[in-house]
Amino acid sequence: MSEVSTAIKREGNNVLIIMTINAGDKVREGLSELLDACLVAMGSATVSWLDEVSDGWGGILFPNQYVVRNDIVGEGTVSVSGDRLTCTVSLRCDALGTDACSEERINSLAGALSSAVQDAVEGHLARHVVNYGKKLVNIGEDVEVTLRGGGIVKGEAVGYGIRGELVVATRTGMAKVKPSRVARIKRLWP
């Protein structure tokens, strides 16, 4: 399997950690599943790091926004170009503080993210899904999810699935929303 190439960029008050990997056949086999796996693995690694730098207050606003005490402090994105998979975590250092964004701490996060992306590409996702799911701040909230390609899922977020999907209790039953299918999510209550 290919190695993950990692770059760290500082832009004003933001830090970007950009990982690229040649995913080859994995991209062609199941693009949606690979994107979901990477979002979940990146979320798991980032929220573990956030817990360290925020005294346990890190969380994930499904599917890919990172929060500390309900303040959005970062976001994860995944894109594909040919066989190359690019995973980016953008952090707001003005919200996290200078200690959290020190070179040592950012390098620590970059290493964890690189390992998590490698796990996702290789299909080793179980531990990341559990950590990701435990840190979803949407659980117990009423949400309205606008899906890419159209459609809306509205109801109470009641849990998460084995691949990091958000499980929503709607009026007609249970719906599972894959992270890569979300165009926008709106918190309705509380």
Describe what this molecule looks like in 3D:
The chain is an alpha+beta fold and 190 residues long. Helix content is 32%, strand content 41%. It is built from five helices and eleven strands, in the order ββααββββαααβββββ. A six-stranded antiparallel sheet has the order 1-2-6-5-4-3. The chain has a five-stranded antiparallel sheet with strand order 10-9-8-7-11, with no helix packed on it. Strand 3 (58-61) and strand 4 form a beta hairpin. The longest helix has 23 residues, at 31-53. It is globular. The protein starts with a strand and ends with a strand. The relative contact order is 0.18. The model has no long low-confidence stretch (mean pLDDT 92).
What's the total count of β strands?
A: 11
In helices, the fraction of residues equals 25-40%
* Order of the strands making up the biggest sheet: 1-2-6-5-4-3
Quaternary class = single chain
- Estimate the global geometry from the Cα principal axes: globular
What structural class should be given to the helix and strand makeup?
A: alpha+beta
- Provide the low-confidence segments as ranges: none
Biggest sheet, in brief?
6 strands, antiparallel
From the N-terminal CA to the C-terminal CA, the straight-line distance is 44 Å
Helix and strand string, N-terminal first?
EEHHEEEEHHHEEEEE
Q: What's the mean pLDDT score?
A: 92
Strand content: 35-45%
What Rg is obtained from the alpha carbons, in whole angstroms? Answer: 16 Å
Distinct helical segment count: 5
Secondary-structure blueprint:
Elements: E1 5-11, E2 14-22, H1 25-29, H2 31-53, E3 58-61, E4 65-68, E5 71-81, E6 84-92, H3 93-96, H4 103-122, H5 126-134, E7 142-147, E8 152-160, E9 166-170, E10 173-177, E11 182-189
